[in-house]
Design a protein that fits this description.
The protein is mainly β and 112 residues long. It is built from one helix and six strands. The chain is globular.
Length: 112
């Protein structure tokens, strides 16, 4: 049986996308997206919980992100989870979980 690795988020960018140009003209954009969940506790008080997600966009998506996305942009994003392990500057092994974007839609209202 095949597995499924699918992530769907609606959230706001925490900063402008950071753009890198790699060898061979490959472009990559990295940013974070905040998603907020709201709930009411048993005492009637409302609470918000915000989670931050690391996003990586490659090639054409990176070009679109560079051109159109900025801090605060509201987007709908689809992608997949990817774990990456690296060694930090102190020689410690670190693992990060990133969302590799497959598509996004800009949800900001456009002023006419």
């Amino acid at each position: 049986m095949k597995g499924l690795n699918k992530v769907t988020l609606i959230g706001n960018l925490g900063s402008d996308p950071r753009i890198q140009n790699l060898d061979g003209g490959i472009k990559v954009a990295k940013c974070s997206i905040a998603t907020t969940e709201s709930f009411k506790d048993p005492y009637g008080q409302y609470h918000n919980i915000t989670d931050w997600h690391s996003i990586v966009m490659w090639r054409g998506l990176a070009e679109l992100a560079e051109k159109y996305l900025h801090k605060g942009s509201l987007i709908y994003l689809e992608g997949k989870l990817k774990n990456r392990t690296f060694e930090d500057k102190d020689g410690q092994k670190r693992t990060v979980t990133e969302i590799i974007a497959e598509s996004f839609l800009m949800l900001d209202k456009v002023n006419s």
